[in-house]
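Lab notebook page, bench 4
Experiment: in silico fold of construct C2
Operator: M.H.
Input chain length: 497 residues
Purpose: comparison with the prior construct
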Amino acid sequence: MASHAGRGNAGNCWLVFFILIASCFPVFAAQNGAEEEGSEPASLLPGEARSTLLKTSLLLAAKAEEDAGPGSLGSLFGDDEEVQKSPKQGQASAAQGGGIKGSIRFEAARTVASPVHWSKMLTRADLSSQGDLGNGVKWKSGIRIGYDAVYDLYDFYPGRVRHDQRYDFSLRENYLDVSSGDWDYRLGKQHVVWGEMVGLFFADVVSAREMREFILPEFDTMRIPQWAARAEYFKDDYHAELLWIPVASYDNVGKPGAEFFPYQPQPAGVAVSYRNEDRPSRSLSHGNYGIRLSTLKNGWDVSGFAYSSMDVAQTFYRDSVSVPGTFIYQARHDRIQQYGGTLAKDFGDIVLKAEAVYTHGRQFTVLRLADDNGLVPQNTLDWAVGLDFSLPADTRLNVQLYQRDFFSHDADLLYEPRETGYSLLLNHKFTNTLEAEALWIASINRTDWLFRPKLVWNFERNWRLSVGADVFKGPALGFFGRYDAKDRVYSEVRYSF
């Protein structure tokens, strides 16, 4: 049965790519014609062709997502997709309707730490369209289609990793917006972003994330939309938001053997294996719900929220009894409660941002062998404070300090009672088309850091070339150090339309 499903997915993949390739010709023609005439293209594809392309791609993506099943840190490095746009904010663009927009990109990465190997040769398309049905009802529909050739060209990764990461078929935001007086309603698969700092996630507790490349992709690319019903109330300077997620999405960490799989501790002389992830059943008792209130007063943007959910992040339970001498890990998801808030203030050339989240019910790994499941419950407080400076000569500097505090800290935890870190982001524009950026994220408790230099060249309108590196350093159980042997260089060519 699995082999037949794989062949079906492959057939769908190639059919979708033939559609995408065919669609590129009128895109490029419209683009070139607009540049020659000095005007913006009114439409990249005829309306009928756009509609046929989107409907066909959506059907194929939905079928592939069904076959694949559940297994199938503003943005730091760009803005790839509309995120957290409320119905009121989206009225102007939605009223136009009908056009397809998105991006097509090719990404390549080569791991330079031993053993040297190609780790990514990904071609990906993100397509979306939106429109107005009238009577205060609007819609948006989007898909993602991808193929990574590295899994066909090389045998470096095990078969289960190739099967998991060779193709990417997923629905992106697909929802209806309905407005009624001071209330807006959004129903369907959507992004809900309650916080956003540089490089790491803190108050962004609702989003599930694509973690098969750790935290290296753009945040907008990483976020996985949730099937949700959201109601928003707007009155003067106040905003209230009610959220219900009947069927949740969860972080995708990939399969054992993948480049950034989150391996668990392995004591000397002990074998380790992994069971398939145990995701919550699709029942109302496993739904997520929350409320968020915010206001803008005297330039201070302040919000607070309460959220109950099945944790989007995996907790790895340990079985040390079934097979003597072997730790068997299984990823599961527990119900947690989270309470937090955000604030932001613009002081001219300096912008202050801060986020804090208290989490109750999450469990953490301990090294104590006597614990059969290898976990202890720990309530935590995560907070981050950042300053963003606009400097002369088109230069931007962002500085952040962050910390996780463990309440009733267990002495056998992998972490100290207070885990503190900082980040530095420096961006400089040499010209209107060329800029450089470097991000440094490090722990204060120990030598554990990530360094990410990057160069971006917008060599033509709507075209972007990026080259960069991701360098890890730290102990084997460190947040970054666990990927010490995964240093890589990468490049990306993207066409946006």
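Observations: Residues 2-496 form a domain with the Porin fold (CATH 2.40.160.10). The radius of gyration is 23 Å.
Next step: discuss at group meeting.
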